[in-house]
Structure formats: structure tokens, C-alpha cells
Amino acid sequence: VVVGDDQAKEKLVAFNDQLLTNEEARLAQLGKIGKYLETLDIYAYFENESPDPRPVVAAAEELFALENPDIRVFYPLRDSASTMIMRGDYADGLAISQKTIAKFLPSRHELEASLAAEFAGQIATELEYAGQLDQAQALLESVKSHRDQIQQEQVRSSVDELIDGAEKRLSMVGQPLELEGQGIGGEAFGWADYRGKVVLVDFWATWCTPCLAEVPNIRDAYDRFHDEGFEVVGVNLDDDAEVVKEFLAAKQLPWKTIISPEAMGFANPNAQRYNISSIPFIALIDPAGNVAALHTRGDQIAIQVQELLDAHKTAPSTTEREGDPPADPAANGAEPAPTEGPDFGDAPEENPAGGEKAGPEDADVTESNAAATDAADEPVTPSNGDTAPGEEEAPDSADSADKTAELLATLAEVNPYAPPASLDNLGLVDFILSMQDKPKSIQYRDGFRDAIVQAADRVLDAEASDRFHTLAAQAKLNYLHRDACLGDEDADQQLQAAVEKLQNDERPEIAADVKFFQVERQALDARDGDVTSLPAHLDAVCAYLTEHQEALTSRHLRLASTAVEMINRLDEDARDEQFARLGKTLADSKDKQVSRYGRRLARSEPAAESNMIGQPLEITGVTIEGQPFDWSAYRGRVVLVDFWATWCGPCRAILPDLQRLHTQYREQGFEIVGISLDEDLDALTQYLSENHMPWVHLAGDGTSELAEKYGVRGIPSLMLVNQEGKVVSTGHNLGAIEKQLETLHKNEVNE
Predict the structure, then answer these.
(1) H or E element in which residue 25 lies
(2) What pLDDT, in 10s, does the model give residues 652-695?
(3) How far is the C-alpha of 528 from the C-alpha of 524, rounded, in Å?
(4) Which residue in 5, 68, 319, 435 has the most C-beta neighbors within 10 A?
(5) What is the reported pTM?
(6) Which CATH superfamily is domain 182-332 in?
(7) 596 vs 355, 553, 587, 703, CA distance in Å?
(8) The domain at 608-750 falls in which architecture?
């Protein structure tokens, strides 16, 4: 049905009918499950504009009534509950969740129990972040009531962590909020200065798209209610303070943003205190300093702020007693929270790394910046009927939305990193150099490369010194090559065009770069060609790498991985010889990453990965999020371990098939674990943010040790691990591994 087979559903119905009459009890029960799934049809429920939950609830009850329900029953129940909550049917979603947890959390099967615990955490978080705090608490009570029945210590421990963390957050309501930190420029922050005001506290980060999507809603409330006593405090959870400074310099948000320089990211003491591990996390604080609401989002921000302000106006004043901090921050000499942000257009002309233009999701953030040009925010000079400052009416929200929409459409076409038109050659070269000094996390943002290419082209098209032309050409080639190595086809095409244009340039540095890119292109073009021609192409690659051994860096890794791709097409005897030659050349490099890659290739033992068949696989390390990896949590599942890197073309080429397998077998307990051999973690983070890879990824220094431990030569290197934790198949492509995966799945169904 999903792929367009109109008869698939009829075939499925007929197959379920056949199973129902099977003498084998397990198969007959499988038929019952199939029949109930026909009735449940959770996907139709999700897509319906006005869904009727009753058929889903009835089908779920039938599943609960099955004798000895197993994991095949768990998955549709999980999907039903989650989908209902996503659609806003919190009561029915909660009821199904509670019964599912009661059925599977005490299971003697570790996989079922661990999945139930994971499901409980997911639903509790979804309810909490939807603002359904009472339902979230009710779910936690259900989990707690079954906690002592859990048979696995590890599952019980994870449930304890879930309960402790969620209750820390849910218990915030009605209690004073503790907040500490300093301004982004190092200035002091006094939380007591905000007493007597309604305050929105926003835990956020520049990389968090949902956080940025809330900025226009927060800004709208700020514009409307600031003069009535409403303030905003942003608690930033980025890992890099410089990134935040660049962001705020361009965005000019008119409220205080605080950080904890000694504990950046989620180690921020404010986040740790309340176990905040997902953002955006928004808390509304009443004038007495107590938490009035959590997870207020969208239009509800302005509505709830208005309610708190109205309640404060009609209530007797209790916030300014003798000895209390004054309501006005300026009254005790502290710097008041800012009331106006500069016009967006007044940002420094040369601030290319400030504005973030990372795709349509960031449009809301741009909208908040555009709102700074609204009349309510501009300094006003009274004349000829102009309203004096402080007397203007709140802007009409519809008019404001129209204005920001117009500005948004205009700004969407503008690259915020683009070099100013007024720059001469010297200014353009200085611009390129300053851009290259920006943090790597900024350098991977949309528009950044285009800005450097634009500046370089302007220098190359003008009369300039050889030094300026060389610097511009190298910058253009390097940034195009960087993105081409990440699979950006547009960058790859631009790179080819640039190399062709510069192929007759006699300046030594440019000629050397052109030669490298030509050798790389020849290898890329040859890798899928006639296998008999591959040895000659490999000779050319190794000759080039040997000649330039002293200068090898990470930019040569795409060439090296292309050579590995060619070697893997040769017969076994030829492969060993070629691996040894290529590996030795790379291993002697002064570059640590290139040298390590070479040492793996040069190992004397042939086909080391294949020696793992039948052996247990043990994986340790740290995930890309910085969390310790728990390999034992995967016991009982079929797992595909993928050693890969962003600079590896063959690794990227198999991504669609990995995504397909993950979707196809995930509900049967199949998982993927990616082990990245990237040393540039910014490039890895950027790649993962742009490509759907919804499985755990290990990264950092420990991954290279894992690759060496298990004899990984070229990448991608794939290892399929069965439910017992033993390797059953290895390879550099998915052909044989997928067949083995199908076999494991069939065996599991037949057991």
C-alpha cells in the first residue's frame, strides 16, 4: 500500500485469514494480530482531519485481551498511543499507554521490558512537552506502580532515572525558580532583579530548530507586554560561547541571554538542576518568582502572559515587602533588562557569521529579527502628530504579521554572509581571511561557502596581485571541495568548473591544487569503470600520494577512499597487495588522521573483518551527543554496525539502503549503530543534521581504536550482529548482509 500496490491490502487480508485457520497456535495468533491491525489502521487515523478514536481504542482492547501478547503486539499498541497523543487525544493515548506499560514493563523478556521502559519515557516526555502535565504525572504513577515488578536490574535502573528526571521537572510548578549565570559578554546577572515581573525563561540553543521557531512567538509577547511588566530571560545551552555571540550580534534579541562559561551545553547548572535534557524548555514565572506554567508554546505564550499580568494587577501587592529586592532592576544600581533592540538593518555591515540562514525552518527566527523594524521598536522622535515614546498603542498583530511576512520573503533571498558590495580587492581578501577564522560550526552553515566563493570570484575577475589571486583561488577550491566531500553535488559541479577554468594557470600554488583535483576526478570517474583498467588508475593515485606524502592532509581522504573503493573490486590476491601499498603511503603521512587510516589499510592480515564471523562483538565509546554508549542495551536485537565517515563517498552512497532497512525491520527489533571515523566533529554534526539517520552514532577518539581492534580496513565496513551479540556477516556493501538479515528475520518469525 505504501509503495503504491493497490492490491496489497487485499492480499494482506487474505493472508491474515489463512493464518487464523492455521493449526499452529503462534501462527493463528499472528493472524489475529493482523486482523486487529486491519481494524486499527493507525495510519488512516493519523491522516484523518477529524479522526474517530473509538475504532483504535476498540482494536487496542482486542490486542490487550490476547493470550501471552509478545513484541508483535507491543509495536501497534505503542504506535497507537503515540499517534493519539500527537493528534491531541491525550486521554485515550494515556489510557493505551498505561495498559501497554502494565503488560510489558514486568516482562521476563529483556527486549520487551526495555522497549516498554523506552516507550514510557517517550510518552511521558510527549505529554509533558505538550503541556499536559497532569497526564504526564499520571503516566509516571503507572510506571512507579509497576517498578518493583521489573525483572531486569538494568531496566529498573533506567526507569528510576526516568521517574527522577521527570519528577524534577514536573515539581517545578508552584515553586520558586532558581536561576544563575552571566551575560554573554561576561556581565553580571541578577535573577532577583526580575522580582515583581512576569518572566518567560527560555532554555534554547542556536542549533535547535524548534527553539528558533518559538522566537517569533516570544518576541510578539515581548513587544505587546514589555511595558506592562513582562520580561524574557534566555538560558543558552550551546557548547560554544563564540557561536552564541555571533548569533546574538546579528539577531539583536532585546532580552537578556545568560550562559555558564564553566559548564556549557546541557551541563549548565540551571539545566542540571531541573534535569532539562530536551529543548525548547519554556517556563513562565509569576511576579512572586514562582513557576506558573511549563512548556507554553505558540499563541499560548501571549495568552498566558496576559492572564498572569491581569491577575497581578487585581491582586494585592505582595512582591515589594521591606527587605525584598526592588521590582525595578535600576533601583538598586543594576543594569535594567533591555527594552529595545536595534533595528535589524543596523547590524554591522561586515558580520557574515551572524545571521543564520539554515533553511526554511529558520524562517521564524528571521521573522523575529524582521519584527525589530516594526514601529513599536523604533526610536520615535515626536513631530507633527507623532506619538511620544511610551504612548504608542500596541501594534496590531495582523499588521505586524503582514510586515514581518514581507520582510521574511525579502530576507529569504539574501545571503546573510555575503561580502558587502563596497569592498575592494584588499577588503575582499580580508573578508575571506576573517571568514576562515570563524568557528567551524558557523562555517558549515548554509550560505557560508557561497559567500567565500562570491568574494573569491570578485577578486579573480579583477586586476589584482598574484598573491591575492592565489589566496582567492585556493579559498574557493578548498570550500567547494569540502562540501563536495560531504556529498553536495552542486559544490562538486562548481568544483569541476573551477578546476577546468584554472587548468592553465601557471602560478605554482594554483597549479598544484589543480593537479590534485584532476587526479581525484580521474579516480572518481574510473572507480565504476572496467575492472581491468583499475590497476593503472591505482598506480596513478599511489604515485601522486607518494610524491606529495609530506603534504597529505584530511582533504586527501576522498581520494584515498576512492582508491579503496577501486581496490575492493579486485580479486583477493590483488587486493592485499594494493592495500599494503596504499596503506604504507598514507601511514607515513605526518597528518594524524591520514596516517591512522593508512595503518588500518596496511595491516598484513588479510580480510581481518571476516575473521569476526561467529565471534562476539563488544562496542564501547561515546555518542555524538556526548553520552556513554551502552552496548548491553542492544542484546536481544539484530544490529548492523556501520564503520563510516562523512568524507567517504561509498559510505554516503549506501545511506538510502540503510534508511530503507532501518524502516523495514525496525519493528522486528532491528537497529543500526554508526561508528564514525571522522575527526572533524563539526562536519559530522552538520552532516547528521542534514541527513535522516535516526540511529545512534559513536564519535571521537575511541572509534579509531574500535576500528583497529576489529581489523577494519576500508570503509564502509559493515558487521551484522545477531540477538546473541555475535557477528554473522561482514562486508563493504549491503548485498550479502541484507540476505543474512532476511534469514535472521525469517528464523525469528518461525520460532
Answers:
(1) helix 25-40
(2) 888 889 999 988 888 888 999 999 998 888 788 888 888 888 89
(3) 8
(4) 435
(5) 0.42
(6) Glutaredoxin (3.40.30.10)
(7) 37, 12, 6, 12
(8) 3-Layer(aba) Sandwich (3.40)
